[in-house]
Write a structure and sequence with these properties.
The chain has 253 residues and is of the alpha/beta class. The protein has seven helices and eleven strands. Helix 6 links the parallel strand 9 and strand 10. It binds 6-phosphogluconic acid (6PG).
């Protein structure tokens, strides 16, 4: 099936966060109604921080009890490192919410062999989603960012991880990344029912244009959920290189 790609451009991060929160609430409620739970995978990086912080305003919602949080990618660092994605997500969001501890699924990298840690996370996904052999999980929602080089999650341009067809999680290393990492693979990301790219800052405007042109094989352009909704949530500063006909039409609200 065809990917439904939607582009929204916001005056600032605050408006972007408000929009993303509304969608989150809708998707969470809908998923719980249909499946009895809401499974979301979160990325690190700076761009989603304001969104995560504002999401804590929804702490009174009953859906947190049935929310399961996974991590899209993680660096091989201890939990207390400023480089840890889970640390940012914990202190910026999870700490304020009433999510049962068993529903939180960090990628544990500290002090572990990374290949084994990736296999362990893959196994966690298989068990949670009851994935059949050769199958892939279907997340209800996934939050992604884009690097200036076109990477997303920890899938970097020109790396063999992009060709992965079987594994759900992989250990990766790249010259642009300070630490080794574990990342969900493309088949897992593209299996999500809803994906938000949260993109902020002028430094992203060039790569956003390339990715949206669709004429590139950059990792972020390989995000094409087969049966899902793909939302590009852009701050105006990240959208300055888009053609005026897109820019003019998409400014929200
Ligand atoms: C990470 C990410 C990565 C991130 C982009 C954008 O661990 O850093 O998962 O893919 O989303 O690098 O990062 P910024 O939002 O900080 O620009």
């Amino acid at each position: 099936m065809k990917t439904h790609k939607k582009i929204f451009i916001f005056k600032n991060g605050n408006q972007l966060a408000d929009f993303a929160i509304k969608k989150w609430r809708h998707i969470a409620r809908q998923s719980i109604k249909e499946k009895g739970r809401f499974a979301v995978a979160l990325s690190g990086g700076k761009s989603p921080m304001e969104f995560y912080r504002k999401l804590t305003h929804l702490k009174g919602e009953s859906f947190w009890q049935k929310t399961h949080v996974f991590i899209v990618d993680e660096r091989a660092v201890p939990f207390d490192s400023p480089e840890s994605n889970f640390r940012m997500i914990h202190y910026g969001l999870l700490k304020y919410l009433d999510i049962p501890q068993d529903n939180v699924h960090p990628i544990i990298t500290a002090g572990r062999n990374l290949a084994n840690a990736a296999l362990q996370y893959e196994n966690d996904l298989i068990v949670f989603f009851k994935t059949s052999s050769g199958g892939f999980p279907e997340f209800d929602l996934m939050i992604l960012g884009i690097g200036e080089d076109g990477h997303t999650a920890s899938l970097f341009p020109g790396t063999s991880a992009l060709d992965e067809k079987k594994r759900l999680a992989l250990e990766v290393s790249h010259k642009m990344a300070k630490n080794k990492r574990i990342t969900m693979t493309l088949p897992v990301i593209n299996g999500a029912a809803n994906l938000f790219f949260v993109i902020r800052g002028r430094n992203k405007s060039k790569i956003v244009k390339e990715v949206l042109d669709g004429s590139t094989s950059l990792p972020a352009a390989m995000i094409r959920p087969g049966h899902g909704n793909l939302y590009f949530l852009l701050e105006t500063s990240a959208a300055t290189k888009l053609p005026p006909k897109i820019l003019g039409k998409m400014i929200y609200p």
